[in-house]
């Protein structure tokens, strides 16, 4: 029986991953600030938690867009210093297998193509453009509209929020650890995860939970921009299965994987489907925006399918029916 430490194992994704690990015959320990008051930045606490452990699933992190720059020290401390302490303790303990919860936010804007100039990387979004309702990124060479394409794992990383920057740093720290210890790291770039047990509406919640929380009290979901921004919504049950699969399919070195459905949808479509499922008011498209948001991130799931044997099984309509009335976290 393999003994797995799950950091953040009492959280939204962590709870589902822990359940999936137990169901597949693993012994599981949890290190989580909410569960036992553990601080991942404390080397003694982490070293004690690693005793007798064979591998680690590292999910603990501060997530979401945050509020403002006052959040920056908290994000860096929790996500990057916490990861560094964990890696140092794993090296000392001789533990060489790690699954890291990364995120699609590491890409910034996704992949785009210009009809005239081929693949392009859009410039950072301009406040004046967004305030004027010009949400689609133009070609940096000719200003023509760009077409979004699936983003693959070898796409250059371009973080555009504090949270995104910390996830890139986590990946880099883990890659260094893998090279220097001979360890194995599967960095799972989770796309927009939703499902039972999501935290309720806070500045750190995912968009699905924000919409669900509004509908629960009879309010219309408020959709930013024009609602046409595209995302890949992946059900947490699929995410948990992918995480267990990645743990069991460990390979030497660092390797990143998109964990996504491969069936993108617009944010507006998701909000409308959730409202219809709950019989609530139709979404309101506000035109509001957040500078740290990106326009389109559409995932290629091909590497995970080829190397991990993982493909998402739950499509968005079925997933939203499950999510619509499932409990949320307080």
Structure description:
This protein has 330 residues and is of the alpha/beta class. It contains 11 helices and 16 strands. Strands 2-1-3-4-8-13 form a 6-stranded parallel sheet, with helices on both faces. It has a 4-stranded mixed sheet with strand order 6-5-7-16, with no helix packed on it. Strands 9-12 form a two-stranded parallel sheet. A hairpin with a 3-residue loop joins strand 5 and strand 6 (118-120). Helix 1 packs across helix 8 (236-248) and helix 4 (72-93) packs parallel to helix 6 (162-181). The longest helix has 22 residues, at 72-93. It is globular, with a radius of gyration of 20 Å.
Helix and strand layout, with pairings?
Layout: E1 3-7, H1 12-23, E2 27-31, H2 33-36, H3 43-49, E3 55-58, H4 72-93, E4 97-103, E5 111-114, E6 118-120, H5 127-131, E7 147-151, H6 162-181, E8 184-190, E9 192-194, H7 207-216, E10 222-223, E11 230-231, E12 233-235, H8 236-248, E13 253-259, E14 265-266, H9 267-278, E15 284-285, E16 298-299, H10 302-308, H11 316-324
Parallel strand pairs: 1-2, 1-3, 3-4, 4-8, 7-16, 8-13, 9-12, 10-15
Antiparallel strand pairs: 5-6, 5-7, 11-14
Helix pairs in contact: 1-8, 4-6, 7-9, 9-11
């Amino acid at each position: 029986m393999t003994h797995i430490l799950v950091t953040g194992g009492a959280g939204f994704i962590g709870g589902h991953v822990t359940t999936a690990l137990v169901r597949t015959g693993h012994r599981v320990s949890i290190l989580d600030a909410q569960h036992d008051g553990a601080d991942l930045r404390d080397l003694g606490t982490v070293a004690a938690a690693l005793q007798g452990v064979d591998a680690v699933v590292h999910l603990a992190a501060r997530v979401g867009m945050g509020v403002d720059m006052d959040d920056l020290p908290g994000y860096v401390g929790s996500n990057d210093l916490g990861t560094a302490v964990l890696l140092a303790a794993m090296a000392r303990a001789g533990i060489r297998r790690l699954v890291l919860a990364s995120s699609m936010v590491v890409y910034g804007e996704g992949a785009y193509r210009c009809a005239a100039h081929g693949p392009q990387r859009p410039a950072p979004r301009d406040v004046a453009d967004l305030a004027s309702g010009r949400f689609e990124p133009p070609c940096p060479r000719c200003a023509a509209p760009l077409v979004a394409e699936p983003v693959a794992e070898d796409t250059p990383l371009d973080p555009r929020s504090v949270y995104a920057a910390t996830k890139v740093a986590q990946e880099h720290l883990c890659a260094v650890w893998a090279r220097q210890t001979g360890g194995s790291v599967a960095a799972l770039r989770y796309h927009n995860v939703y499902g039972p047990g999501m935290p309720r509406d806070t500045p750190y919640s995912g968009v699905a939970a924000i919409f669900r929380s509004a509908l629960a009290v009879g309010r219309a979901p408020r959709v930013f921009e024009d609602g046409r921004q595209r995302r890949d919504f992946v059900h947490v049950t699929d995410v948990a299965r992918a995480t267990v699969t990645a743990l069991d399919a460990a390979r030497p070195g660092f390797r990143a994987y998109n964990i996504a459905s491969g069936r993108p949808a617009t944010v507006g479509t998701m909000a409308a489907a959730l409202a219809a499922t709950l019989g609530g008011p139709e979404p309101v498209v506000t035109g509001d925006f957040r500078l740290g948001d990106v326009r389109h991130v559409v995932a290629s799931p091909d590497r995970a399918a080829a190397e991990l044997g993982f493909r998402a099984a739950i499509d968005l309509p079925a997933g939203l029916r499950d999510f619509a009335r499932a409990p949320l976290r307080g």
